[in-house]
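for the recovery benchmark. tokens below, seq after
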């Protein structure tokens, strides 16, 4: 990521406000991908971060300085996004890189993750004479970035993308899941959720106490898999006898989180 890239954004621009809203609406896809990344032995994400606004009031003038900056090492409990500041602030002096923050979902301003696409390796003689080709990670999300890219002339946009070393693609078509055009079904459920079905069934059989275990926020496995949008896992947990009425420390059931995040494919299963 380019140092301090796109820290400042205009909170009065209708297109920027629209970008903020789109980021909040689709954040669930970011978290779904991040939650699977947390389980991978070999990492797949080249980058995963969330943008939020930070402010500092001038004690003499009372004026607020606002900067939009990125945090990483993201966690999410269904209500609050947490992570560590990546950027060096330009004008704000009361925070620094590495500081930990907890931010309500409705206050984030963007999210971004990047995945390097798989490359088909040449075969036969073509393999002998082919030269290694640099594969640039594909960016997903980044709504505020695309808004600003749309305002740039083409040469400036290319310079911007080269600085980030990411393939942002068409600012009119912003993907939120991997292989979205080729496999639109990935919008409904993450392929790993389906592919790991057998392993997850075995896990539940081997560790049945995981069904009733709750973390420090009162989130059970059913809560967490619902928040991550994993229908296959939710069905397995319910089939294993999980109580769908258990509430988190925030007083919410899994169904509450499904509705809150608008996981339409999971809501009917939890209502049943």
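predicted aa per position
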């Amino acid at each position: 990521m380019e140092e301090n890239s796109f820290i400042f954004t205009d909170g009065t621009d209708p297109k920027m406000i629209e970008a903020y809203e789109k980021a909040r609406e689709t954040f669930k896809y970011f978290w779904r991908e991040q939650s699977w990344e947390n389980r991978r032995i070999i990492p797949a994400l080249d980058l995963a971060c969330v943008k939020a606004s930070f402010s500092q009031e001038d004690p003499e003038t009372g004026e607020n300085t606002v900067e939009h900056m990125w945090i990483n090492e993201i966690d999410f409990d269904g209500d609050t996004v947490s992570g560590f500041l990546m950027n060096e602030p330009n004008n704000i002096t009361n925070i620094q890189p590495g500081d930990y923050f907890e931010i309500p979902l409705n206050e984030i301003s963007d999210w971004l993750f990047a995945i390097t696409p798989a490359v088909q390796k040449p075969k036969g003689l073509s393999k002998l004479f082919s030269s290694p080709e640099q594969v640039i990670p594909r960016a997903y999300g980044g709504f505020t970035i695309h808004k600003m890219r749309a305002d740039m002339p083409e040469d400036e946009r290319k310079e911007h993308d080269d600085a980030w070393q990411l393939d942002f693609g068409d600012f009119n078509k912003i993907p939120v899941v991997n292989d979205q055009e080729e496999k639109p079904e990935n919008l409904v459920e993450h392929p790993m959720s389906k592919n790991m079905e057998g392993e997850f069934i075995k896990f539940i059989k081997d560790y049945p106490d995981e069904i009733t275990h709750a973390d420090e926020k009162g989130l059970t496995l059913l809560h967490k898999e619902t928040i991550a949008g994993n229908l296959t896992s939710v069905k397995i947990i319910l089939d294993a006898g999980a109580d769908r009425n258990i509430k988190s420390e925030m007083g919410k059931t899994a169904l509450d989180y499904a509705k809150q995040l608008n996981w339409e494919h999971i809501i009917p299963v939890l209502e049943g």
